[in-house]
Design goal:
The protein is of the alpha/beta class. It has helices at 11-27, 41-50, 67-74, 103-120, 140-148, 175-178, 203-209, 218-230, 241-255; strands at 35-37, 54-57, 78-81, 128-131, 196-197, 235-236. The strands form two sheets. The protein has a four-stranded parallel β-sheet, with helices on one face. The chain has a two-stranded parallel sheet with strand order 5-6. The longest helix is centred in the middle third of the chain and has 18 residues, at 103-120. It is globular. It starts with 10 loop residues before the first helix and ends with a helix.
Length: 256
């Protein structure tokens, strides 16, 4: 599990748990795309061999030095999530003061570094999906901020907070539009990358609603799914599938 504070089970245990399930799904003739959530290259390889289609690495290929090469060789879609540290330490790594306290700015900068590494490893742009990492190295209010400003994750530029470095005005017709933009110096631009959001049943929803049992956070999850779709997310990861399908369909009618 990648939940906060989770103890890792190791490569062999992951393979023993995941591969038989994938094989059985394929044996039953179910052809839906399957994503394997792992930061171990050996687990990803075994899952792909068993019939999985997508690798979802919460470290964006940072934990296992062989992951990016594997994904490049297999030419499969790769979900790069923003996270700091590991599941045991990430809850303490939510200080974004080096980005003037701007969690979106920090997430953009650090995600761009992982995307650059993936591109340099030979993973094509069209196989990369971004995940801002709701609940990963972000405390409650920061998660709401990410959802509120999700469209900025893949914007060409974002506006500066007070005291941030900005682009100098270049004059001309675009002077007004340039004023106040942050000089981010991203490793690569994130424009037009597809975005996945996984907010389902998470703790920040429980804090807002008073629901301590995760399974009781369906309605709160619905609100976050709507916000994600409004912000441009193309994929949402959820537990309560039937309910969230309806939420997504109605949200699409409103915002798309």
């Amino acid at each position: 599990s990648t939940r906060p504070g989770a103890t890792q089970v190791g490569v062999e245990a992951e393979i023993e748990r995941v591969v038989p399930v994938i094989k059985r799904i394929r044996e039953l003739g179910i052809e839906v795309p399957i994503s394997v959530d792992t930061f171990h290259a050996d687990v990803a390889a075994a899952a792909l061999d068993a019939g999985a289609d997508i690798v979802n690495d919460v470290t964006g290929g940072h934990f296992d030095s062989q992951m990016l090469a594997l994904v490049a060789q297999r030419q499969c879609p790769f979900i790069i999530m923003h996270m700091r540290g590991n599941p045991s330490t990430m809850t303490t790594l939510n200080d974004y003061s080096e980005y003037d306290g701007d969690v979106i700015r920090g997430t953009r900068f650090e995600l761009a570094q992982r995307v650059r590494a993936a591109l340099d490893a030979g993973i094509p742009r069209w196989n990369i999906i971004l995940d801002p990492g709701i609940g990963f190295a972000k405390e409650g209010v920061q998660n709401f901020e990410v959802l509120r400003r999700l469209s900025e994750l893949t914007a060409r530029h974002i506006r500066a907070a007070s005291g941030a470095a900005i682009h100098p005005s270049t004059g001309g017709d675009n002077q007004d539009s340039e004023e106040g933009l942050i000089d981010e110096n991203l490793a690569t631009e994130l424009v037009d990358y597809p975005v996945l959001v996984g907010s389902s049943r998470k703790r920040f929803i429980g804090h807002a609603t008073g629901r301590t049992d995760a399974k009781d956070r369906v309605w709160g999850t619905a609100a976050t799914v709507t916000a994600a779709i409004q912000g441009g997310a193309g994929i949402v990861r959820v537990h309560d599938v039937a309910e969230m399908v309806d939420v997504a369909r109605v949200s699409d009618h409103i915002y798309r």
